C-alpha cells in the first residue's frame, strides 16, 4: 500500500481527468508522470500501477455519463427499439469501437512491452502535433461548417474507428485521432467532439472493465481501496471540468493550440530524458 501515496493518487487522478478527452494523450501523460514519480515499471508492482492507470479512467468515464446522460439515454432507447435516431447512433458508435478493440486484444502484450515508455510517447506527441498544425493550415479542422451528429452513418463511423486504432500507440491520443477523423468525414466540430466522447465512453468503459476483471485483485492487493477510489474521484471532477472547457473552446477555435502543446510537451519530455531525469 505504500507504493502509491494519497498525493500520488491525486496527481495521477488529475492527469488522467484533465488529459483523457483532450487531444493530447492521457496514456502518454500517465506514462511520463508515473516515471517522474518513480513508480514501479516492472513485475507485479508495475502491473498494479498499469492497472491503476487504466482503472482510474472510470472517473473520466463517469464524467461523460453525467454530462451526456441525455444523449446516452437516447442511445439506450435505440437499443430497446424505441428511437430510430438512438439506434442509428448506437450502431455508429459500435462500428467505431470494434476495430481498436480487436487490434488491442491481439496486440496487447506487444503494445505494453514495446510502446509504453517515454521515448515512444515523445515520438507520438511530436508527430501528432505536426500533423495537427499541418491540417489546421488547410482549414479542415476549424469550428465552422460540417454536419450534425445525427447524420453519421456506419461507414463513416468505421473510418473513425480505424483511425482510433492509431491511439493504441501511447502519446497519439484517442481523442485527437477520432476528432480529426470525424472532421475529415464531414462532421461539424461540435459533432466530432461529441462523437469522440461517446466513443470514448464505450472504449474506455470496455478497457476499464477488462482490466478490473483481469488485474483488479492485484491492484487492490497492492494499493488497497483508498488510493484507487481517491484517484477515481479526482479523475471524475477534473474530467468534468476539462470536458466543459474543451467544448466551449472548440466552438470558437480550431485544434492548433493542442498541436503546439503536443510539440512543447514532447520537447520538454525529450529534454528530461536526455538529462537523465526520466
The secondary-structure class comes to mainly alpha
Indicate how many domains the architecture comprises: 1
- Please give the number of β-strands: 0
Report how far the terminal alpha carbons are from each other. 24 Å
Low-pLDDT stretches are none
The gist of it:
By secondary structure, the protein is mostly helical. The chain has helices spanning 6-19, 26-37, 43-55, 57-67, 69-79, 84-114, 118-137, 154-164, 174-184, 189-223, 226-250, 256-274.
Descriptive overview:
It is a single chain. By secondary structure, the protein is an all-alpha fold. It has one domain. 77% of the residues lie in helices and 0% in strands. It is built from twelve helices and no strands. The protein has helices at 6-19, 26-37, 43-55, 57-67, 69-79, 84-114, 118-137, 154-164, 174-184, 189-223, 226-250, 256-274. Helix 9 runs antiparallel to helix 10 (189-223). The chain starts with 5 loop residues before the first helix and ends with a helix. The mean pLDDT is 92.
